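Table 4 source record.
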Amino acid sequence: LSFTWPGASAPTLDQLSLRLHPGEAVLLRGESGQGKSTLLSLLAGILSPSGGSLTVAGQDFHALSQRQRDRVRGADIGVIFQQFNLLPFLPILDNLLLPIRFSSERRARLAAAGTPPEVAAEALLDTLGLSLEALGHRSVGALSVGQQQRVAAARALLGSPSLILADEPTSALDPQNRDAFLSALKDAQTERGASLLCVSHDPALEPYFDRVVTLEGLQESRP
């Protein structure tokens, strides 16, 4: 896989090779500015590759239009953005239910399991160490940074997408809250059988993942 930003003299990603297995948790290490977030945007279908091939959730992204990639992302990819991308004026539950409102596939998975979306959302928050009953109807803007990260993670996992992408999800947390968040995220990911790709520059995250890779290593592994 290769990607070059318009007007750039050199590619940001050059013939990168990566395979993420079902249920696997992989940490992508690297310093800022190396292209980690660019790779996540490619995997989420937000950007289009300049070259190579890309298959996500069984879909050949090269063969899909932007609208079709958006649909795949809504149905099968949960994204934990570095800045959370929560709506601060909305209550916690309304933020959590946004993916369900936009994806019939996620609604269908919950319906097949016989679980109302509100019940599933509350159970996810419990797994991630938050109590919706205790937090009440407050808006997410009134939560701490650590609480907002848990809400963002629960939103990404709701409706059982097959792939979770996390961009520096612990960058604003102290070590104690970081470890608690990662333990809860891994428990939720494992329970749902999703694959997890997390990018971070922090080596303290490594014990929580099945495999640790670097962009340099992925580009050196090409045929």
